[in-house]
Amino acid sequence: MAASSTWHDADNVRQPSGDVHAWWPGTNQTVCGTPLSRARLDRFPHVLWADAVWTEGTAEPGTPITALCRRCGAATRPRRTGASHGRRSARRT
Ligand SMILES: [Zn+2]
């Protein structure tokens, strides 16, 4: 993922803050199409988008506020496979 700001957690691991976007290593733009260089976004190859979503939901006191990009969020949301689509076990014996 990529973000506009940086902070370090208790383990001194670089973490994203500010405007946070989903980003795949090997590309030069975010999932929503923002060029990293033009938007001055830092890369965080070691941080997964899912982790950022989780962190936002369970933010501890002192954790910098992050603003997750909604467009990236929509693009990375797992798609439903339809496995739970009204399937009933039709067992009639
Ligand atoms: Zn984005």
Brief sketch in words of this structure:
With 93 residues, the chain is of the alpha+beta class. It is built from three helices and four strands; from the N terminus they run E-E-H-E-H-E-H. The radius of gyration is 18 Å and the shape is globular.
Mean pLDDT: 85
With strands numbered from the N-terminus, the spatial order across the biggest sheet is 3-1-2-4
The number of helical elements comes to 3
Share of β-strand residues = 15-25%
Question: Helix and strand string, N-terminal first?
Answer: EEHEHEH
Spans of at least 5 consecutive residues whose pLDDT stays below 50 are none
The gyration radius over C-alpha positions equals 18 Å
Number of domains: 1
Structural class: alpha+beta
Question: Which ions, cofactors or small ligands are bound in this entry?
Answer: zinc ion
Distance between the termini: 53 Å
What is the 3D shape? globular
General description of the model:
With 93 residues, the protein is an alpha+beta fold. The protein has one domain. Helix content is 22%, strand content 22%. The chain has three helices and four strands; from the N terminus they run ββαβαβα. The chain has a four-stranded mixed beta sheet with strand order 3-1-2-4. It is globular. It starts with a strand and ends in a 17-residue tail after the last helix. The mean pLDDT is 85. It binds zinc ion. The site of zinc ion has 8 residues, from helix 3.
